[in-house]
Amino acid sequence: MSMIITLEEARRRRADGLSRNETPPEFGDSEPDFTPSGSGHSLSVRSVTQTEDSIALEFTRQHGDSWRYVAAWGKWYRWTGTHWEAEPTLQVFDLIRSVCRDASINAGKPSAETKIASASTISSVEKLARADRKHAATAEQWDADPWLLNTPGGVIDLRDG
What we know:
This protein has 161 residues and is of the alpha+beta class. It has helices at residues 7-16, 52-63, 91-105, 110-116, 119-131, 139-142, and strands at 67-70, 75-79, 84-86, 136-137, 148-151, 154-157. The longest helix has 15 residues, at 91-105. The protein is elongated. The relative contact order is 0.15. Mean pLDDT is 78; it is low at 18-48.
């Protein structure tokens, strides 16, 4: 489960020596700490030098199997486990925002932290992710088999009813 925190909270946690997956003791943490002893932060973004492209690649590493972008329709689609669903609430932007926050923690300088967590960086990362081959889809891919009909209850093969 992903925990979203503010940039200020991330800075406080770094100062307190807590990773993104740790909850301060006063909250009665019931989740395990996956931070190896003495390793510092256990963030998914590995590099200290972050670019918009490296952050977009990290987003794709984390979410490439469950998100597609169709440029012709200008929409992101999320895999629900049974079907692809148009996502109208900017959830991708929020997921990228979380990846940027993680990356900002490793930036090393407050000015770099602020830049990485900025709306312009988040927007740029989202645009780069749209073009990643793992996310990019065409309108034609959605109806590749004209004999299959997707319904809320599942897929029906029209050849055998």
